[in-house]
Amino acid sequence: MSWFERKIKPMLAVKSKPFSSDDYIYEVKWDGTRCLAFADTERRRLRLQNRRLLDITYRYPELKVLDAVDRNAILDGEIVVMKDGKPSFPLLQKREHVDNRVKIEIYSKTIPAVYIVFDVLYCDGWVVDLELMERKKILSEILQNRGRVIMADWIEGDGEELYRKAVEMGLEGIVAKKKDGKYLMGKRSNLWKKIKKGNTLDCVIVGWIEGEGERAETFGSLVLAVYEDGKLRHVGNVGTGFDAEFLTWFSKKLRDIEIKKPLLDIESRNVHWVRPEYVCEVEFLEFTEDGKLRAPVFLRLREDKSPEECKID
Predict the structure, then answer these.
(1) Which of 21, 82, 181, 237 could bond 191 through an S-S bridge, CB–CB 3.0 to 4.6 Å?
(2) Which of 152, 178, 196 is the last residue of a domain?
(3) Contact criterion met (CB below 8 Å) for 206 and 264
(4) CATH code of residue 31
C-alpha cells in the first residue's frame, strides 16, 4: 500500500491544566474537524481523511491543498468554519451534515471552511520519528498560506498567558506540545496536552426521549452513554443546546436507527432506543456522585469520532 492510500489515525492529546514551560510550544485549540490531508503533488491527487478514517474530500472542494504544498506530503490539522474571527460550531455542523453535491458546492462558497495545518507526517518520506520542531521547520518550508489552507501559529514559553487570552477571545483553549516529541500515530500521549476552558465529554447517543409542546414532533432529550470495560454506561440525558433545524434533521436520523431492545437499564419513560452509531460532545459542570453529568448542554455531533472512543479520561 502506498503512502497516499494508507489509513492513518492521528495522534491525540491528554487533558491538562494551564501551565508554562520552555520544553513546550503552545497553539490555539481551534476545535474543528480533525483532518489528515494526503497531497500527491506529482499526480495531482488529494485525499482528506477524518478521525474515523472516512474520506471527506468531496465535502470541502474549496480547500485547495495541492496549491498550498510543493512536495508530496501528509498533513495534520483542523477544518474549521470561521465567523467573526472565531470557529463556529453551527456552521461547521451545517457543512458536515450535507452530502448533496449541489448544496456542498453552494456552501463551499457561502460558508467556506479553512484548513489550519499544525503538523506533517510525510514529506517525500516519513518524518514521524523526527522531533516536533524539526517537523515544524519542514512544514514551514513546504506549505504556503493559500487556497484556504494556512499554517497554525504557535508560541514558546508562556502557555498560561496564551490560555488566558484564548479564553478572553471566546476560544475553547490551547494545546501544549513537547518540542522534542515524535508523532505517535493513533496514540493518545502526554507529549500533547489539551487545555480547555470547560468540562466537555464525547458521549454515545443510545436513545431519545419524546418531547412535549413545541418539541412534540422531534425529541425532548438524548440518552447518553460512554464505554467502560467494553460495556455502555449511562451518564445522563441532554435536553438543551439544540436549534430548530438540528432538532428536525436529527429526529429523522434517529428514527432510521431505532431498535426495540433497551441498551441500558434506566428508569425513564418514553425512551426510544437507537443503535449506538452517533457521537455528540456535551459541556457540563461536573460529575455527580453517581457518575452522571450535571447540567449538560449539547455542543455538536462528532462525526469524526467513533462510539468506541467515548470513554471518561
Answers:
(1) 181
(2) 196
(3) yes
(4) 3.30.470.30
Any catalytic annotation for residue 29? Answer: yes
* Strands 33-40 and 73-80, bridge-based pairing: antiparallel
Asked if residue 33 has pLDDT above 90, the reply is yes
| Paired strand residues for 221 | 209
Of residues 7, 15, 17, 29, which has the active-site annotation? 29
Quickly tell me which residue has 455538536 as its cell. 300
> Could you read off the pLDDT of 235-288 as tens digits, one per residue?
999 999 998 889 999 999 999 999 988 888 887 667 999 999 999 999 998 889
Contact in structure between 279 and 261 (CB atoms under 8 Å): no
* Residue 108, pLDDT score: 96
CA 121, CA 40: separation in Å to the nearest integer? 13
CATH code at position 245: 2.40.50.140
**Lowest-confidence segment of 96-100, 105-109, 136-140, 293-297 by average pLDDT:** 96-100
What is the total count of domains within the chain?
2
Whether 218 and 192 map to the same domain: the answer is: no
Q: Coil, strand, or helix at residue 296?
A: coil
C-alpha–C-alpha distance, residues 153 and 305, integer Å = 25
Whole-number pLDDT of residue 268:
67
Number of Cβ within a 10 Å radius of residue 208: 23
Cα within 13 Å of Cα(3), Cβ side = 19
Please provide residue 198's backbone torsions phi and psi, each rounded to the nearest 5 degrees: -135, 170
The length of the chain in residues reads 313
Find where cell 467515548 sits.
310
CA pair distance 227, 38, nearest whole angstrom: 31
Q: Phi and psi at residue 72, in whole multiples of 5°?
A: -60, 130
The pLDDT of residue 147: 92
In this structure, the answer to whether residues 39 and 126 fall within a common structural domain is yes
Rounded CA separation 226/203 (Å): 6
End-to-end CA distance of the chain: give it in Å, rounded: 34
Would you state the torsion angle of the CA atoms of residues 260, 261, 263, 264, taken in this order, to the nearest 10 degrees?
100
